[in-house]
Amino acid sequence: MSKTATLVGASGLIGSHLLQLLLDDPYFDTVKILVRRSLPLTHPKLERKLVDFNDNDSLLVAIDNSDVLFCTVGTTQKKVKGDKDAYRKVDFDIPVKMARFCKLTGCETFILVSAVGADSRSKNFYLKLKGEAEEAVRTAGIGSVYFMRPSVLLGKRIESRLGERIFTPLARIFSFLLPSKYKPVQANVVAKAMVAAAKKADEGVHVWEYREMREEAG
Asked: What pTM was estimated for this model as a whole?
């Protein structure tokens, strides 16, 4: 049975790995990516959908007939220049809107990259925002939902992040001292786990942290 996967966030660290996995996997015969600007990539299975995330009608049309929707979007304080409202528009508004539209179009599997420690009651802006996004996605009524909660991501980014440049080497060295869910994880492991989750599509809401992602990635 042919499957259609839709990906939001294909240009990011996890998204770029995930896109390649989806294109290489015969389980999916169509891979749609929702992008604001064109990506220099061609593949027989690939469908690019240039969208405005403020245009609800175009988004609904773009994700129609999807079997699974992957959302890997995320921004940084640097990108939004410290504007918390702008940050929220990316890390909350987009995934929540995608989840609700997923339900409207009959897509029954939604997989979101969140963050370890996500908690709507947290005093930390980032973790609070991720927790609020998770809570909103839970209420969308989708049959199968997976939240991936990585800690520090390992992998080569196009952009450089100061905090990760400082913390990542330390996390690698002292990884054995950290509780499992806080251990750094390769971005391609998260991507592989997302593909595994899409194939499971178990009913209900599932939270995968370091241990689950490593196990399911194989």
From this structure: 0.91
